[in-house]
Amino acid sequence: MSFALEDLPYAYDALAPYMSAETLEYHHDKHHQAYVTNGNKLLEGSGLEGKSLEEIVKESYGTNAGLFNNAGQHLNHLHFWKWMKPNGGGSSLPGVLAKKVDEELGGFDKFRADFINAGVTQFGSGWAWLAVKDGKLVVMKTPNGENPIVHGATPILGCDVWEHSYYIDYRNARPKYLEAFVDNLINWEYVEELYSKAV
Ligand code: MN3
Question: Manganese/iron superoxide dismutase N-terminal domain: which residues (predicted)?
């Protein structure tokens, strides 16, 4: 399959003041578009043309770095836009997810601290994740465009910590961006939907 850029699921100014229209215009229209455009060029002749996006990411990992980076970032961003919504975030998680965060991650406050810490301590570009591995919730981080699926885990929430995701709104204050993401932007209903499919 070839890659295509979907529209954002909300208006460009819908996430302000936590993520500005200017950030979303650059991040979605320029950065994500570039992953789609370059990914399609690199997919041609790769032998993976008929595969799903997830298969392309898994099969190009360690074998075709250019394709992997662009396909991985396309997959990451497809979900990233849906992992946010206006008036999102906070500690009111849907029932099943709230229970599992308590049982498997030591409660919401510990999850929040661990998720923010994963993003803050990812040296350079990358992602902070909440994923399901071996049936259990785990907080993890990856460099660059890597997605947890290459480590046998299924991501249900991810936060982009590349500077293009926060530099316009937060300058170098990556911790403040991660706090705003958790407290004001997360679309917990979408996280719950992915969790129910992953377990
Ligand atoms: Mn990005």
Answer: 3-84
The alpha carbon of 166 and the centre of ligand 1 are apart by a number of angstroms equal to 9
Q: What pTM value is reported for the model?
A: 0.97
- What pLDDT sits at residue 124? 97
Pick the CATH number of 21-80 from 1.10.287.990, 1.10.8.60, 2.60.120.20, 3.40.630.30: 1.10.287.990
Q: Which helix (H) or strand (E) holds 24?
A: helix 21-24
Class assignment of domain 95-198? alpha beta
Query: Ligand 1 centre from 103 Cα, in Å?
Result: 31
Q: Is the pLDDT of residue 166 over 90?
A: yes
Per domain, the residue ranges of the chain are: 21-80, 95-198
pLDDT tens figures, 132-147:
999 999 999 999 999 9
Tell me how far the alpha carbon of residue 74 lies from the centroid of ligand 1, in angstroms.
9
CA atoms within 13 A on the CB side of 166: 23
Residue 187 has pLDDT above 80, yes or no: yes
Q: How far apart are CA 160 and CA 99, in angstroms?
A: 26
Report CA(126)–ligand 1 centroid distance (Å).
9
Q: How far is the CA of 41 from the centre of ligand 1 (A)?
A: 19
Burial 123-147 (b: 16+ CB within 10 A, else e): eeebbbbbbbeeeebbbbbbebbbb
Q: How confident is the model at residue 95 (pLDDT cuts 50, 70, 90)?
A: confident
